[in-house]
Write a structure and sequence with these properties.
CATH class of the domain at 57-197: Alpha Beta
Largest sheet: 5 strands, mixed
Number of helices: 5
Number of strands: 11
Protein name: NADH-quinone oxidoreductase subunit C
GO molecular function: NADH dehydrogenase (quinone) (non-electrogenic) activity; NADH dehydrogenase (ubiquinone) activity; quinone binding
CATH architecture of the domain at 57-197: 2-Layer Sandwich
Membrane topology: Peripheral membrane protein
Keywords: Cell membrane, Membrane, NAD, Oxidoreductase, Quinone, Translocase, Transport
Structural class: alpha+beta
CATH topology of the domain at 57-197: Beta Polymerase, domain 2
Radius of gyration: 22 Å
Enzyme class: translocase
């Protein structure tokens, strides 16, 4: 140890091979100030001095470890057999917190999902739903749809993620591959405004049919309580007294 100035070279090598590291790796999408990142002095927590960088996990490097490499190899091979270049369909692969996520170009989402379901070595027969995410700072990819796929045959769990810009919030529907996604896609449309092309009946599922806007987007107004008490009206949370 002493001849290496106290650094274990094998340990240092192993650290550099770990995939999906956080910290300085990955893409910075915004700098958050305060406890919850409120803008315009709306931080009522008293922690307005907190500043942190918000980053998305970066792409992982091979080897991913465990069965992750087997799934990645099989998926890439199956796409090549269909005449697709894997790098065109898979934008990046992220391994983070012992989970693997394939970021898929939206025009290839349907084909990748069908491959994952039907290939005998993959057999991800079940999609447990789709979740929406809105990253205001991820310019050109503000809206994300995240799919959770489980292989009952191989007892494995992976994630697919696809992005779309606010200006063009369209992604393919997976109902034809995973019929249970029907209401999940409707809920994601209802709250985030993601339009799932090819869905058999894309209508609101939680909010009234004539509701304006999508309540779980980050730029949606928080709203106030329309009740007056002793001549005072309760303002929206982001307009209340600030302690910063």
């Amino acid at each position: 140890m002493s001849e290496h100035n106290g650094v274990n070279p094998e340990q240092d090598l192993n650290a550099s091979n770990l995939p999906g590291q956080r910290g300085d790796q990955g893409e910075e999408i915004r700098v958050q100030r305060g406890m919850f990142g409120a803008n315009n002095g709306g931080d009522t927590t008293g922690y307005g001095g907190l500043v942190r960088s918000v980053r998305l996990p970066g792409p992982a490097a091979r080897p991913y470890g465990g069965w992750f490499d087997e799934v990645a190899d099989e998926l890439e091979g199956a796409l090549e057999e269909q005449g697709l270049l894997p790098e065109n369909a898979i934008e990046k692969t992220v391994v983070d917190r012992d989970e693997i996520t394939f970021h898929i170009a939206r025009e290839y989402l349907l084909r990748v999902a069908q491959t994952l379901r039907d290939d005998p070595a993959l057999r991800f027969e079940l999609c447990t739903g789709v979740s929406g995410v809105h990253y205001l700072g991820d310019k050109g990819r503000e809206l994300h749809a995240v799919y959770h796929l489980r292989s009952i045959t191989h007892n494995r769990l992976i994630r697919l993620e696809v992005s779309a810009p606010d200006a063009d919030p369209h992604v393919p529907s997976l109902v034809s591959v995973y019929p249970t996604n029907d209401w999940h896609e409707r809920e994601t449309y209802d709250f985030f405004g993601l339009i799932f092309d090819g869905h058999p009946a894309l209508t609101r599922i939680m909010m009234p049919d004539d509701w304006q806007g999508f309540p779980q987007r980050k730029d949606y107004p928080l709203g106030g309580i329309p009740v007056e008490y002793k001549g005072a009206q309760i303002p929206a949370p982001d307009q209340r007294r600030s302690y910063s």
